[in-house]
Design brief:
Shape of chain B: extended
Largest interface: A-B, 30 and 29 residues
Order of helices and strands of chain A: EHEHEHEHEHEHEHEHH
Number of strands of chain A: 8
Oligomer: heterodimer
Radius of gyration of chain A: 17 Å
Order of helices and strands of chain B: HHH
Radius of gyration of chain B: 17 Å
Number of domains of chain B: 2
Number of helices of chain A: 9
Largest sheet of chain A: 8 strands, parallel
Strand content of chain A: 15-25%
Bound molecules: zinc ion
Number of strands of chain B: 0
Shape of chain A: globular
Strand order of the largest sheet of chain A: 1-2-3-4-5-6-7-8
Strand content of chain B: under 5%
CATH architecture of chain A: Alpha-Beta Barrel
């Protein structure tokens, strides 16, 4: 089985996880910028993080012949401080043309505050002005339904942004339909305690179809499983799904989305 | 999959999770003091399970969701707790 991990926070993972992923059939990994679990004290912290994402982590992955791509932003959890966000936004152009940068992400909302929306709009403006793909993080738990709606409103308000060039990640049963209905791509995050289980992800694919959807593990510093995508592929086989269908969802769909960036090289 | 096949694949797992939910409710009941808004939200979400309508997973998620549509003024925390505390909390 081959697959792509389209959303994995590899800076939080051990090298053993790279070995396990490649052994399980992973052929490319894509890493959006996110929260470190603590607030970075200045824009310099983000500068170093962007160097890690564009220089160091691709080298670590390359030791296992694994192509590594990334997305840049200041994440919504640190977006209440608009001044810091503006500083970080000002250094992103320095990195955006690097060879493994696919776009702006994961941007979005966390608690659905006015400042978070301001910072989201600034990121969307940056993506629009530089014709970048967008990867969106939707809020957690009780904040997800409202946040998903607010995020889609911001994206639709910018005429330069095409929905098919944005993926809205961490959808669940109460948000997937509105995301797909508006023409966006939808990401399902396979997480042990929140977001979505393997069984529920497959249910959503069976109900809403396999177009414009991907699955990811998000594997970060929290409780998460770097092999969640291949585990879900195994679950699909237990349900009797065809190999071609599994391949489309796990391998071809991420390629279809990401190859909209000329920097993404589809694995052969 | 047929309904029979779904039961063959998932009945034990769902049974296990349901008993865990029952034990969780017993555990809260055994505890001292008063539960917060999450307990009420949980009981309300449980009502969805006895519905014969499709879309029960979405309905449970909706039951825990912030039903409002306006942004909040300021984010004073980063965390979500799983249930909406209400407009004034
Ligand atoms: Zn993430």
């Amino acid at each position: 089985m081959r697959y792509i991990e389209p959303h994995g926070h590899m800076v939080s993972r051990t090298t053993d996880d790279y070995v396990a992923m490649v052994t399980a059939g992973c052929e490319a990994v894509c890493e959006p910028a996110f929260w470190a679990g603590f607030d970075r004290s200045s824009a310099n912290g983000f500068y170093d993080y962007f160097c890690q994402l564009t220089e160091h982590e691709p080298k670590r992955a390359a030791k296992f012949n694994l192509p590594h791509y990334t997305w840049l932003c200041i994440n919504p959890k640190e977006s209440e401080d608009v001044g810091l966000a503006e500083e970080v936004l000002s250094i992103i152009p320095e990195f955006i043309d690097r060879p493994n940068v696919l776009g702006i992400g994961e941007i979005g909302l966390n608690k659905n505050s006015r400042n978070e929306i301001k910072v989201l709009e600034k990121h969307v403006d940056l993506a629009g002005s530089r014709d970048q793909l967008i990867l969106v993080h939707t809020p957690h738990l009780e904040d997800k339904r409202k946040g998903t709606r607010l995020i889609m409103d911001v994206l639709k308000n910018d005429s330069r942004i095409s929905p098919e060039r944005c993926i809205i990640d961490h959808v669940e049963e109460h948000t997937i339909k509105m995301v797909l209905d508006e023409g966006f791509w939808a990401g399902m995050t396979l997480y042990p305690e929140s977001k979505c289980s393997s069984a529920r992800a497959i249910d959503m694919l069976e109900i809403y179809g396999s177009e414009k959807i991907w699955m990811n593990s998000a594997c970060d510093w929290g409780i998460s499983v770097p092999l969640a995508v291949p585990h879900t592929m195994m679950e699909m086989r237990r349900r009797g799904h065809e190999k071609d269908w599994i391949d489309k969802v796990s391998f071809q769909n991420p390629i279809s989305f990401m190859k909209q960036s000329p920097k993404f090289q589809a694995p052969a | 999959m047929t309904q029979q096949q779904v039961l063959d694949l998932y009945f034990m797992d769902a049974r296990h999770k349901l008993i865990d939910v029952a034990a969780f409710l017993d555990r809260v009941d055994r505890g001292e003091g008063e539960p917060d808004f999450r307990y009420e939200a949980f009981r309300k979400a449980l009502e969805v399970l006895s519905s014969a309508e499709p879309g029960k997973a979405a309905a449970v998620l909706e039951a825990f969701s912030d039903p409002t549509n306006e942004p909040i003024e300021v984010a004073t925390t980063k965390a979500a707790c799983g249930a909406w505390p209400g407009a004034n909390q």
